[in-house]
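Aim 2 progress update. The chain analyzed this quarter is reproduced below.
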Amino acid sequence: MPFPLIRPLRLATSSLVLLLCALVAHAQNAPPPAAPPATRPAGSYPADGTTPPPGAAAASVPTGADAALLSRDARRIYELSRDKLVQIRTLLRNANTQASIGSGFFVSADGLIVTNFHVASQLALEPERYRGVYVTMEGQEGEVELLAFDVQRDLAVLRAKGRTAAAPVLGFRPADEALAQGERIYSLGNPLDIGFAVTEGTYNGLVKRSFYPRIFFGGTLNPGMSGGPAVDDAGRVLGVNVAKRLDGEQVSFLIPAEFAQALVQRAANAQPITQAAHAEMTRQLMEHQQLLTDRFLKAPFREQRHGNYRVPVPDDALARCWGSGRDPAFPGLNLERTQCRADSDVVAGEFNTGAVRLSYEAYNAPTLGAARFARMFSQSFANEQLQRRGNRHQTAAECSERFVDPGSLPLRAVVCLSAYRKLPGLYNMTVLAASINQPTQGVLGRLDVQGIAFDNGMKLASHYLKAFRWEAAP
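Predicted C-alpha cells:
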C-alpha cells in the first residue's frame, strides 16, 4: 500500500491512508485504496484453537521491573534531547497568525535545524506571505531562514537567525553502526501542539516497495511531530519523523538520517532562500520523474490473467496490487477489479505528486447479448473521472483518442495531459484503454502518472499499451 505523507498541523485534517506528522492548513483528499489483507492484532493468539507456545503470555506483558526500565530510558532520552528540540511555526506575515506547526532539531552550533520539507514548504514557495520561527522547550522564540530542501526525501534545513550563543546539538549515529531488527528507538516532537513528548518504539527494517528508503518505526507518531528526530539509546539521530499509517496501530515511518546529513552538508554554505523556489522544486521533481520512468521501463510488466485477457501490472518490487472478484451488484456479469499503486508520492507544497496508479475492470457477460454489453461497456469507459476543469495548480486535461493495435489485442486508447502551472514541463497523465475484440467480453485499463515530463509520459504510455494481450483458447 502507498503511504501519503503526514501533514503539519494546519487547521484541517485529511482522511488519507497515511498522515503527515506536522499540523497543515491544506488537507488533501485521495481515493480510498483497496483494503489490505486482514492482520492479527499484536500480541493476540491464533484464532484456530491452537495452543500458544509456553511462556508466550509472559513475553507479551512486560514485568514491573521491565516497564520501569523502559520508562527510565525514555526519561533519560528526553532529558538528553530536550534542549536540542524545537517547534517550527509558519506564520502569516500580515496577520502574524500560525499557518502550520511541526518539529525540528539543532544539528550544528551555528543554529542549523533539520525538519521536513512539508513543514517548511510555505517558506520555500510563498516567502512573501509566510515567515518561520522556532520555539524551544523553554519558550524562547527566534526567526528562521530556509537554506535548502530535498523534495524527494521530504527534508529541509533552516537556520536560526540572530543566535548569540552556540546551539546545543543532536549528533547523528555513525552510518557504519547498522541498526538491529527490534532495536529500541525513541521519537521526539511536539504532537498536536500540546507539548514536547517522547514515544518509544522499535526498528523494523526498511519499508518494502518504498520508492525512497524509509524506516519502519514500530511506534506512535502524531500530527505536529513531523521533522522531529528519532534517536537510539545513546541519543544519536538515526531518522527523521515523517509519516504514519491511519489504518493500523504503531505503523510509522522515518527518513533515514543519512539523507538529512547530506542535506545539512549542502546547506552549510548556502544562501537563504528569499524568493519563491518553484524552479528548484521543478528541478528536483524532474529528477524524481526520471528515476520513476527509468525504474518502470527497466522492470518488465508482469501479466495478470482475466479470462483470455492478459493485462500489465507492475513488478512486485515496484507496487502492490489488490483485487476483488465477482461483484454481486451486477447479476449476470462476471466483473473483476484490480488496483495497483507505487509508493512514489512526494510533497510539492500544498499537494502531492509523483504517484503511479494502475487499475483494471474485466467484464464477461455471455448472457447479456452484444448490444446490451456494448452499451454497458461504453458507459463504464465514459464514467472515468478526469481533470475536466483547471485549478490554481493545474490546467484542465487535454485528451487525444485513437484506435491502436500494439500486438494481439486491438484497443481504444485515450491519453490525457494536465499541465502544472508553476512547475513548467511537468504534467499529470492518464491513459485509458478498452479492448474492442469481443462482443460480450472486455477489459478496461487505466494508468495514472503524476508529475511526469511529456517525453517520459509518452514512453510510459507506449510501454503500457504494448503490454496488453489476448490469448486465444487452444
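The longest strand covers residues 441-452. Residues 70 and 200 are 8 Å apart (CA to CA). These observations will guide the mutagenesis experiments scheduled for the next reporting period.
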